[in-house]
Amino acid sequence: MRPSLRTFAAVVAILLVPGPSSAADADLATRDPGEAYRATLESLGGEPIALPAALAQAFETSPVLGAARAQLAAAEGSARRERGAFDPTLFAEAHVAEADTPASSPFAGADVLATREEGGSAGARMTLPIGTEIEARLESSRLTTNSEFAAYSPEYSANGTVTLRQPLLQGFGIGTRGPLSRSENAVAAARAQFEDARLALEVDVTAAYWDLYAAERDLAVQRLLVERSAVFLNEASRKAEAGLVGPSEVATARVFSTEQRLAELDQEERLDILSDRLGVLIGQSPGDARWHPVSDPGSLEDVDSEDALVARALETNEALRAARANLDALRADASAARRNLLPSLDVIGTLGGNGLAGTGREISFGGDVTVIPDRGDRGESVDQVLQRDYPTWSVGLELELPLFLREGRGEADRASAEVKRAEDLVAELERDIRADVRARAREARNGSERLSLAREGLDASLEQVRIGQIEYANGRTTAFELVRLAADLASAQERHSSALVRTAKAAAELRRLAPPPTASTQGERE
Question: 318-340 and 406-445 helices cross at what angle (nearest 10)?
């Protein structure tokens, strides 16, 4: 037997059995049921908590939300890494080399040719998102030698080049930018998944909070009923001793009292379970006490039309946005795979210059002495390169054609199949969202009417109980019938409470399924 508010109204009938056997029973019998209910509810105690505080605590401590936050950070790190592939890179290199070489020719200029070269290079390179590779390099060296025929020692040489490689087929455009496009869409998907996880947590906490809200009131009513059932049993026993009622009336009262005590235990266990569940969701325990909800469901909000909510959900639903972003990421992969299926055909061009400087020497050859004038130092050779006094250039094509193209075709087929699968998943999710939004919208919209009808049923049940009490007092009905009427009244009260909580849950679920547009989503739409 599920403990509920059904039993609350039964108390009304029990209290009106005439002639209580003690002052305490008289007090229970004559006390206003509403006041008695509120006093019992307050006696339950517990650690008070408001719904906004519970949500804030859950957002701070939830492992699920923390995992979604970490996933977003990982996606942002991956996107940063992919963007870094297009950042300029500086490079530099330096070296020193010495060599002693036995002369193999009279023109070597020495019996043992000794050379020392000190040099290095520096520059920058970068890749553009369209696949263009650019490198600027400057090389310079200083050479000293003992050769009698060397015109300069030390000799300074330099050369500089700007090299450009532009893919025309494979690697062009999306072929190079594909990984970055995928990572950017992955960030959008992770951000939407994080927001959806936050909204899902809000729904779970809200549902647990209102379940606890209703269960606490159920327990209050059940404890009140246990007290009143004792009055019922005592009064039935007293009447039986006076010969006013038969043994069946006492048995009915005893069964009723036992059932209510068992129901109280069940209801208390249920309340503990719901309190623990709320504690798990918010990551905090109230200690030995239970959580005590202090917020009220409040008034019902107006609900937009189903078509308007569906349209908004298809635009702002975070789970759907995440699925679409994943689809865009897979489409970027597929586009890159199709582009890179083509052969590699690159245009390669260079533009540069040379430079030469050094300290001139006297060269003797065949009795003639030639004096080589100085041509400056290392800086002079570098200036010649930069001013392109001795220009160089080149241009060409480079073709690479893998036979059969099986690797590229396989990757393109795989990526296309992943896109098709993601498209079907997005379509399925859209259908589910449409159905869920319409169901929750009807549930929330019918909340006002549901509450109104529940109130009418409650009033009618109260009237039935009132008439039944009069008939019982006049001996025209039995205690069993009076309990049945009271149970009907309690059911009406339970429907009223359930309608209020159900509508609050539906409103929370609608906020997740069709969240209001934010500034970011409005910007994306524009």
Answer: 170
